[in-house]
Design a protein that fits this description.
Four Helix Bundle (Hemerythrin (Met), subunit A); seven-stranded mixed beta sheet; alpha/beta; single chain; binds 5-S-methyl-1-O-phosphono-5-thio-D-ribulose; amino-acid biosynthesis; Rossmann fold; Initiation_fac_2B_a/b/d; isomerase; Putative methylthioribose-1-phosphate isomerase; four-stranded mixed beta sheet; 2 domains
């Protein structure tokens, strides 16, 4: 298997960004080309590309496209910033790209650097986190914090990959992750692609498996981590963390430092609310009675007291041990 499944490519000859179209997986592997920054805005909003680090890398290339096409950089920066509100990597990468411009450097070079560095960070997270995994562990994960959500390897799934590469026999349980089904569609695709044993479950099955002692560890990604270690991640993460606490299952979060937001307070964070058709329809068929709407919060917040450890590219932080 190609250990380097990647969702983002820059084509230097044609000056375009090529994204794996994640809306089509696992049934079709298609690519989506971005020649303008507005193409990138669309790709992020419509979730052609998704996952906190991957959104950040794509946005940096979006700003580079604005520069290459002679667009107003300030406007492009603002429009790219408004594509999705919760994952902080978007703002982190755009600010880095903008600072490069202010310092007279090329935005494209900065975007390439952010892209390459993200691969290395993910590898490091995998290698550090892998030390926590025991031979025979069954690990539950939520959403997709894999190669598809980053530049390669992933965060939570990088740990799973490196445990597998080191010869540990592990099994993965993937929450389907309603409503967009990133767990069923993307995590299962990625792990199956590498022949890492994975089983899908409905989100509401996790508690039962924990009660039966069938889960040894939970590892999820993050969209934003505050300085007091509150973790924003895909909706359903908080419920999992509560279940894990009740059943004494270690609950880990894996994320690079580009996902940390040391400035904002809990009350400042905007949790994305997406169109309720993502909930009221399944595969184009309405499943909720006409006239009934739905809540569709894309993320929730897990407090530090529910988190065993946060695995970064530098170290494992134990929020409840004072580090
Ligand atoms: C390494 S990605 C971590 C998170 O971004 C991931 O868990 C997640 O919540 C993705 O949400 P999505 O709405 O698919 O962008």
């Amino acid at each position: 298997m190609d250990r380097d499944l990647r969702p983002i490519f820059w084509n230097d000859e044609e000056k375009k960004l090529i994204l794996v179209d994640q809306r089509k997986l696992p049934n079709k592997l298609e690519y989506f080309e971005c020649k303008t920054y507005t193409d990138v805005c669309y790709a992020i909003k419509d979730m052609v590309v998704r996952g906190a680090p991957a959104i950040g890398v794509s946005a940096a290339y979006g700003l580079a496209l604005a520069e290459l096409n002679g667009n107003n950089i300030e406007n492009a920066y603002m429009e790219l910033k408004e594509t999705r509100p919760t994952a902080v990597n978007l703002f982190w990468a755009l600010d880095k790209a903008m600072n490069a411009k202010i310092n007279g450097k090329s935005i494209l070079d900065e975007a390439k650097l952010i892209h390459d560095e993200d691969v290395e960070l993910c590898k490091k997270i995998g290698k550090i986190g892998e030390t926590l995994i025991k031979d025979g562990d069954t690990i539950l994960t939520h959403c997709n914090a894999g190669a598809l959500a980053t530049s390669a390897y992933g965060t939570a799934l990088s740990i799973i990959r490196f445990a597998h590469y080191s010869g540990k026999k592990i099994n993965v349980i993937s929450d389907e992750t309603r409503p967009r089904l990133q767990g069923a569609k993307l995590t299962c695709f990625e792990l199956n692609y590498e022949k890492i044993p994975v089983k899908a479950i409905c989100d509401n099955t996790a508690g039962y498996l924990m009660s039966k002692g069938m889960i040894d560890k939970i590892i999820v990604g993050a969209d934003r981590i505050l300085s007091d270690y509150h973790v924003f991640n895909k909706i359903g993460t908080y419920s999992l963390a509560i279940l894990a606490k009740y059943h004494n299952v270690p609950f880990y979060v894996a994320a690079p430092y580009s996902t940390f937001d040391f400035k904002s307070k809990l009350v400042d964070i905007v949790v994305e609310e997406r169109d309720d058709v993502e909930v009221t329809y399944i595969d184009g068929v309405r499943v909720v009675s006409e006239g009934v709407s739905a809540y569709n919060f894309a993320f929730d917040c897990t407090p530090p007291e529910l988190i065993t450890g946060i695995i970064t590219e530098k170290e494992i932080i134990y929020p409840n041990l004072g580090k």
